[in-house]
Structure formats: structure tokens, C-alpha cells
Amino acid sequence: MALITIDKEACKGCSMCVKACPKNVIAISSESNKNGYFYAEAVRLDACIGCAFCALMCPDVCITVEK
Ligand code: SF4
Ligand code: SF4
Fold it and tell me: Ligand 1: does its nearest atom lie under 6 Å from the Cβ of 16?
């Protein structure tokens, strides 16, 4: 199983990572961060395959992937 970490305070809620993930691991939270953005969070981490598409797509480099 791979593991992603999302820096929720750096996230701008653009959804690029949500669209990039082939496994629907990431969703946008119903709660906002301190900057007022609805941030991305990993909701199905067990499905993550570590492809890093999410991290590559994030314009703000909020996501790190470990294998
Ligand atoms: S590493 Fe791949 S499978 Fe895992 S959350 Fe990112 S895009 Fe989805
Ligand atoms: S791509 Fe980056 S900034 Fe956009 S929602 Fe995902 S983690 Fe947040």
C-alpha cells in the first residue's frame, strides 16, 4: 500500500488531484482550511497505488507520496 500526505493548509482546493487520481482516493473536504479553501483529503487511502499522478498534478506541491 502506498501512502499520500496532503498539506491541507497549503491546498487551494482546485480539485486537480481529485481528477488525476485513477483510484478515487482523494476528495474535497466539506471543511475549509485557515485560508478558507475546501481542501483535498485522502478518503480511500487503502486504494492508493502510489502512481503519484496526484502529486504531479498539484500546482501547489501539496502532496507527497511514499511507497
Ligand atoms: S498516488 Fe495515485 S492512486 Fe495514490 S492518491 Fe495519488 S493519484 Fe491516487
Ligand atoms: S491539486 Fe493540490 S491544491 Fe489542488 S486540490 Fe489537490 S492538493 Fe489541493
Answer: no
Question: Ligand 1: which of 5, 26, 28, 43 to mutate, judged by most atoms within 8 Å of the beta carbon?
Answer: 26
Do residues 12 and 63 touch, judged by C-beta distance below 8 A? no
* pTM exceeds 0.90 for this model: yes
Domain extent listing, the chain: 3-66
What fold does the segment set 3-66 form as a domain?
A: Alpha-Beta Plaits (3.30.70)
Query: What pLDDT digit, counting tens, does each position of 26-59 carry?
Result: 999 999 999 999 999 999 999 999 999 999 999 9
